[in-house]
Amino acid sequence: MRGFVKGMVKGLKFLYANPKRGPRKSPRSNSPTMPLEDLKATLDRSFRDAMWSKDGMISKEAWATGSSVVREAGILKTDVKYEEIIDMSFVESVRANL
User: Fold this and answer.
1) I need a surface site. Which of 22, 34, 49, 66 has the fewest CB within 10 A?
2) What pLDDT was estimated at residue 34?
3) Separation of alpha carbons 58 and 80, rounded Å
């Protein structure tokens, strides 16, 4: 688990350090039929909206937003508290050692 988390944190750092270069190749392989201008617009909007955490941390506010979306969609039927589902100890450990 620590290796996965370390890779995610390093990937986020690279992504934000290289916003024009870093994310362009992978999405193309995941969405080969998406028009290039749509792919670029999606990535640009994601950066503008700060869609991804820059450091791997998931805040209580982020969980509240995600939780409300899946509850409204009927995917999650009961309220789940942040502390019951989110454990940032791996991310905190990795960030301390990078």
Assistant:
1) 49
2) 81
3) 15
Interior/surface letters 47-82, b for 16+ CB within 10 angstroms, e for the rest? eeeeeeeeebeeeeeebeeebeeeeeeeeeeeeeee
d(CA 67, CA 61): 10
How far is residue 38 from each of residues 20, 44, 93, measured CA to CA in Å? 15, 10, 37
Residue 22 tokens, joined:
């870093």
DSSP 19: T
- For the question of whether the overall pTM of this predicted structure is more than 0.85, the answer is no
Mean pLDDT per 10-residue interval, the chain, length 98 residues:
88 80 61 81 81 87 92 95 94 86
- How far is residue 13 from each of residues 53, 54, 78, measured CA to CA in Å? 10, 6, 34
